Amino acid sequence: MTALRMAFNELRRITSGKLPRLAVLALCLVPLLYAALYLYANKDPYANLKQVPAALVVEDKGATTSDGQFKNAGEEVAAELVNGDKFDWHRVSEEDAEAGVRGGKYTFALTLPEDFSQALLSSGDFQPRKGVIMLTTNDANNYLGSTIANQVVAEVRRSVSVRVGAEAADKFLLGFSTIRQKTVEAADGATKIADGTQRAYDGSVKLVDGAVPLADGSAQVSAGLKQLRDSTADLPRKSQQLADGAKQVSDGNETVARTAEDYAAKSQALVGRLDQLNGDVANRLRALGFTEEQVQRVVQAMTDVRAPVDDANGKVQSTAGQLRTLSNGSKQVADGAAQLAAATPALTDAITRLNDGAAQVAAGNAQLRDGAIALRDGEKELVDGTVKLRDGLNEGINQIPNPDDPTRQATADTIGDPVNVRGVSQTSAGTYGAGLAPFFLGLATWIGAFVLFLLLKPLSKRGLAAGQNAVRVAVGGWLPGVLLGAAQVVIMFSVVALVVDIRPSHPWGTLGFLLLTSATFVAVLHALNALFGAVGKFIGLVLLILQLVSAGGTFPWQTIPVPLYPLHYGLPMGYAVDGLRHLMYGGSLGSVGTDALILVAYLVGALALSTLGAYKQRVWTPSRLKPELVL
User: Fold this and answer.
1) How far apart are CA 228 and CA 220, in angstroms?
2) Where are the alpha helices (DSSP H) in 85-142?
3) 208, 370 contact by CB (below 8 A)
4) Which of 56, 173, 216, 586 keeps 20 to 30 A from 116, CA to CA?
5) With contact defined as beta carbons under 8 Å apart, do 426 and 587 qualify?
6) Is residue 528 a contact partner of residue 571, using CB atoms and an 8 Å limit?
7) What pLDDT score was predicted for residue 420?
8) What is the C-alpha to C-alpha distance for residues 375 and 381, in angstroms, rounded to an integer?
9) Model confidence at 330, in pLDDT bands (50, 70, 90)?
10) CA of 165: how far to CAs of 157, 206, 460, 566, in Å?
């Protein structure tokens, strides 16, 4: 009897009758019920989050910004959440939200307190404090619901942070524009100051140019008047001598006349000298920049001072004429000489006062000159300083950013949210259900193989009784399971791909790999049943549990405890899940060949163990005739 014949006999046995056929059909549908139904229920749970009830409490009273605008960040966040249509939001009071979460009416609650806006705007007053978003959860409602709620709060926090950061950056950049504008105005003012100080400096230079010759001329006038004073110091004495000589006129008119003419000539020369002095002083004062009015006042003062001299000169001249014509005028000459002697001290006093005034004028002009020079030097330093200020402000203007409105807004947005995540997905499962599909298809295949041997006999009793070759008996017992397992896989894969709409990137490769996986799992469970009988079924169940925790179907397998690592490497389901992932998601197919070879090795090893079981069962023992445990 060949292995195919034994397999055919076993299939005919389990399909003889209406109820057995229904049982076989049910066995073929077990993987479908497990994998397809579960994947259908969990295909895309995130798309249905809008049906999850959540409480939203908005107590924010708003706040006024520094520019006088009223802002209610809580209402903005609430509107964003409600319009986002991610959850079934309910605007309720804080008491209703807390009671609703506790009683399971709401999965979680989100509360925005009354000072939410004030906290967000507090940095503008340099009294920063963070805004608080309160999340109320209850794991008794749903643990993953709480996890998702935390993700929602994190997203809200990021969104608010981006908005607040962008607004703050916008104001910061706008402040730069204001600073630049004020700096431009300051630079314009500094330019005007520099121009004004330059003109003031030019004026001070001209003032120095006028004050220096004025001081020099004043000194010369003072020196001339001093010389005049010194030259007229003996005039009173000589006038007295004239008076004494007049008394001697009677001794000889001719002598007196000559003496009188001599004094008349000297007096006239003195008057001429005073006239020349008046002209020189006036010309020098004009050359020094004095106004004509000032010159005339000085000339008038000198004229008033010399009036007695002019009067005396007239009298001298008159006396000299009288002495020539009148020898008997000695009395008159004596009187005139006495008058001249009396007037001469007044003239010398006037000359002394004029000299003192000229000295004071000269000293004042010297101070004016020194002050003008100091003013010129100070103005020069001021000009240099204002020029540096002007140049520094103009240079600083170009270093102050002045973005236009679009650029400022874009910059503020970038500062508020400086990082974009650009995901490069080499492969993508697409949905949550598709992501779990490799794991649950693998589990369904094991479960399908497990239930097959609730109906199938692992070894043909007729073959064993007839002493058939152990390999032939083992393969004959394995083949019915392979055929039924293939039917399970085809039905399961068809429904998952066409009804549940989880489309693998390599559909035919995925189907072929599932068929190999099914054949391998059937071989492993066949070997357990062939070797250990009823205990083999229990071992198959234990292996299912061990592979559930070690295959890495949900989290990466590296996250399991290290002591469980040998289970991942030593059991076949991890390789089945890995191969299905690459085939379904479109990843590299390099590891698929390795996974397939390892499954083939498991298949061959399982068939070897089945052969050993068939070999051992050719000998009937009391335990086989009357087993202690029957399942």
Assistant:
1) 12
2) 94-103, 116-121
3) no
4) 173
5) yes
6) no
7) 44
8) 10
9) low
10) 12, 60, 77, 50
Q: Quick check: 107 and 52 in contact, CB under 8 A?
A: yes
CA 534 to each of CA 455, 527, 546: distance values in angstroms, whole numbers, following the listed order: 13, 12, 19
Which residues lie closer than 8 Å to 34 by C-beta, 6 or more apart?
440, 443, 444, 447, 448
Domains of the chain with CATH codes: 3-44+431-620 (no CATH), 49-141 (no CATH), 201-397 (1.10.287)
Q: Could you read off the pLDDT of 194-241 as tens digits, one per residue?
A: 777 777 778 777 777 776 786 677 677 667 667 766 777 776 777 677
User: pLDDT by residue (tens digit) across 359-385?
Assistant: 776 677 677 777 778 877 777 777 777
- The CA-to-CA distance between both ends of the chain, in Å, stands at 28
DSSP result, 241-285: HHHHHHTTGGG-HHHHHHHHHHHHHHHHHHHHHHHHHHHHHHHHH
Residue 46: how many CA atoms within 13 Å on its side-chain side?
A: 10
Task: Report residue 465 as tokens.
Answer: 């009784």
Q: How far are the Cα atoms of 192, 371, 455, 512, 630 from residue 616, in angstroms, in the given order?
A: 115, 132, 22, 34, 19
Number of other residues whose CB lies within 10 A of the CB of residue 620: 10
pTM comes to 0.55
3-state SS class at 422:
coil
Contact at 8 Å (CB) between 376 and 205? yes
- Helix, strand, coil percentages (3-state) for the chain, rounded to 5, are 75, 5, 20
* Number of residues written out for the chain: 631
